[in-house]
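During the second year of the project, the team shifted from modelling isolated chains to modelling whole assemblies. The rationale, set out in the original proposal, was that interfaces cannot be judged from single-chain predictions alone. As a representative example for this report, we include one of the complexes processed in the last quarter. Its constituent sequences, exactly as entered into the pipeline, are reproduced here:
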Amino acid sequence: MNTYPVVTDEYTESWQRPAHRYFSQNLSTVNRHYQALTPKERIAAFYQELQGRTTESNVLLTSSFGTTAVLLLHLFYDLDIRQKIHFLDTTFHFEETITYKNQLTHLFDLHVSELRPEAWKNKYIRQNEVWKTDPDFCCSVNKVEPLQSVKEKADFWISGLMNWQNEHRKQLDIFEEKDGIIKFYPLLDVTEADALQYIEENKLPVHPLKPLGYESIGCKQCTLRGKGRSGRWSNSIKTECGLHR
Ligand code: SF4
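Output from the structure prediction step:
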């Protein structure tokens, strides 16, 4: 594994920002360094660099338990890194997703924290089928808001986004700092073929809906069969739930 860059005085951004507090160089230098590493090496390097400074609350790790989620979860398992996994239970998931989550939780001995929307708001959404008329509001209530209190305590947010998944994700870098949090995307340059190969080679469990033609899976109301993320919000221009914007 490459050694990590040492402290320099080239950092010019505000001292309050988490990137300054945690990294010895500016994020573009850190990104250049991490681009040369494999996803597994990136996760290992991150935890090595932050040794003793990562906690259950300052690192937010999210998983949708969708079709490619197992890759990131397996890398953490393989590296023997214990980190709480946050799962947004919108109450609109497929039964198969919940079954798959339970399967992976058991297999990798995961510590999963389930975040739910406020009951009265969720009830309003359900009764008025708000996902049909205002999916952004629906995602805001059921996904964005429940994560907010966890996000406020976190300095890092690790997720398994890959840049082939949509146009927005193509523009991302391995580390990005936004709204006081450093997003870390260790799988960003993993191709769809690489992801499938990894899952196959490691004989990892496949989401039960994948063989039925669902390549990206979210809430039931907003997911159809389809290639890539084409089955998500297929009747609207929406491509992200708002979490990763
Ligand atoms: S994915 Fe659809 S149902 Fe789920 S929270 Fe977003 S708009 Fe609502």
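Residues 90, 92, 131, 135, 138-139, 142-143, 218-219, 221-222, 241 surround iron/sulfur cluster (CB under 6 Å). The chain has one domain: 18-222.
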